[in-house]
Structures are given as C-alpha cells and as structure tokens.
Amino acid sequence: MSFYLSIYLSIYSIDIYSYLSIYLLSIYLSIKFFLHIYLSKFLRIYLTLFISKFVHNYLSIFLHIYLSLVISIYLSIYLSIYLSIYILFLSIYLCSFLFLLFSYLSIYLSIYLSIYLSIYLSKIVHICLKDITQHQTPEGLSCFPNAFSPGTDYKCSEEGEKKRQTCINTFLVDPTSKLVTYGQRTNISSTEVSLAD
User: Fold this and answer.
1) What parts of the sequence cross the membrane (predicted)?
2) Residues 197 and 41 sit within 8 Å (Cβ to Cβ)
3) pLDDT tens-digit profile of 8-50?
4) What's the number of CA atoms in the CB half-sphere (13 Å) around residue 73?
C-alpha cells in the first residue's frame, strides 16, 4: 500500500511542478506579448505619419498579420490560465484521486479553446485593423480616418459604425480616437507623438 501511495505522490508532485512551469511560462509570454502590442501600436502610428503611402501599403500587410497573431495569442493564453486554475481547484475539491484526470483534461481543453479563440479573435482583429492599415475612401464602409488626408470630414456608414463598435466592445478601445487627432494635424514632431501616445 505504501508503495502505491509513494508512486501516486510522486506523480502528484510532478504534475504540480508541471502546472507551475506552465503558469510561469504563460505569465512570461503574456508580459512579452503585452509589450509587443504597445510597441507595435507606436510603430504603426509612426509609419502612418512619417513614411510615404507607397511604402506603408506594403508594410501594413505585415503589421496586420503580426498584430492579429499577438492579440489572439495574448488573450487565448489568459483564457487558458484561468480555465486551468478553475479546473485544478475543482478537481482538488471533488476528489484528490481524480486530480490527474482533471488536470490533464484541463490542459487539453485549454489548448483546444485557445486554438478556437485565436481563430475567432483573428476574425475580429481583422475587422478592426483592416480599416486602420488600409486606406479607404470616406464613401466606403470604413469609419476610420485616413492620416494622409488631414482635415477631411469622414462620415461612418451604418456597417462602418458597427465595425467601430465591435472594436470598442471587444478591446475596450476606440481605434479612431488617436488617428482622428493625428490625421487632422500636420508637422507633428516625434516628441509630440511619443508624448501623445
């Protein structure tokens, strides 16, 4: 009996260490991706303001893909962490002998939901960033201003307003607020941009 108990405790301890390593790694990656999001946001505004429209049209494609992946992975990692912790405490509360089953189940379930959430968020991010990185006419569906046409009166269509509200409700940020200010000003120095950001 003691032999089987020792085996169980050894597996139990290994599983705890594996969970701790996963959580620490997830926190590290989350902080890293969080910094990359803000760095990319400043880089996108810098490119929009100071680089020609021809060059920006090519770079916007890579920025769009990069930001979509970063935001999707960043949010899916947090979902995985919270879900794993919840199932972990639930398994301990129910029965210690079911700990291994629930813990490994939580890992697989978290991975599955992370992949699903990443695909879903990529579609939402695509809606938000497409209008920011690509230059569309005011008569189109976009309600995001074009920074290369300062002073233009942009009017959002009904579908464009739905896109903007989707961005606000999902990421709690209005992507038009800063670009409207930047788009209606000229001769902005790099110091002003860094302070405004």
Assistant:
1) 85-113
2) yes
3) 444 454 455 555 555 565 566 655 665 555 555 555 555 555 5
4) 17
Output DSSP code: residue 189: -
Q: How many CA atoms lie within 13 A of 29 on its CB side?
A: 17
In the block, which residue shows the tokens 């950001």?
197
State the Cα–Cα distance between residues 57 and 12, nearest whole angstrom.
Answer: 54
Distance, CA of 108 to CA of 128 (rounded, Å)? 30
* Dihedral (CA of 91, 97, 101, 103) sign: positive
Contacts of 81 (CB under 8 A, 6+ apart): 23, 26, 27
* Residue among 90, 92, 71 nearest 82 (CA): 90
pTM for the whole structure: 0.27
Q: Any idea where the domains of the chain sit in the sequence?
A: 2-196
User: What's at 96, amino acid-wise?
Assistant: S
d(CA 134, CA 62): 12
Nearest Cα to 181, choosing from 169, 197, 165, 162? Answer: 197
